[in-house]
């Protein structure tokens, strides 16, 4: 099966913005991706002690990038499509602004990792997922809550620094049936591709880093079609009070 010049169930090495331009219009059913959580320039340079004060203008590069990104997403997604985009508190406002014109419904899902990282003050125990439905996306009458509980991948077991648990992605995709084309524009070590394969869907993955792309290809070869999540309790009765 081909999507334009891309063969489905493949990982393509390259820049996401350049590659997505080569995907035909209205050809993707589900966007499931985990973009880099860019930080403003102020975070990268040692200027705090020199009197540099951060401003919202620091996010202008991030805003421009994702405005271009979502313009392409708008083009390649079907009118019946759904999107799941991992983000954090800093990037979500920028994502929301870019998503607002192209999705009928947008909601913020909370992924509770059920344990926090070590450190001081308030530590991260969750990540965010920007969820969007297009104009003609069929509604799914599940009544499930928007807090998803699933333990993260332990650091010692990660191939990629931002690796997500495959159980989490499988349960998201299972809500949308089979034979969908799933696009991951920042596929890392291939968790979304594995989840797509195990749920009976097709996938196309883009990854800039060659080492990560190779890990993703090896991972897909090892994955199987049938899979029963063990660690997650995303949609169990215990989270419906």
Describe what this molecule looks like in 3D.
- With about 240 residues, this protein is an alpha/beta fold.
- The chain has a single domain (about 1-240), classed as 3-Layer(aba) Sandwich (Rossmann fold).
- It is about 25% helix and about 20% strand.
- The strands form two sheets. Strands 3-10-9-4-5-7-6-8 form an eight-stranded mixed sheet, with helices on both faces.
- Mean pLDDT is about 85; it is low at about 40-45, about 225-230 and about 235-240.
Helix count equals: 6
Structural class: alpha/beta
Helix and strand sequence: EEEHEHEHEEEHEHEH
CATH architecture: 3-Layer(aba) Sandwich
Unreliable stretches (pLDDT < 50, length at least 5) are 41-45, 226-231, 236-241
Biggest sheet descriptor = 8 strands, mixed
Ends distance: 44 Å
Number of domains: 1
Sum this structure up briefly.
Strand 4, helix 2 and strand 5 form a beta-alpha-beta unit. Helix content is 24%, strand content 22%.
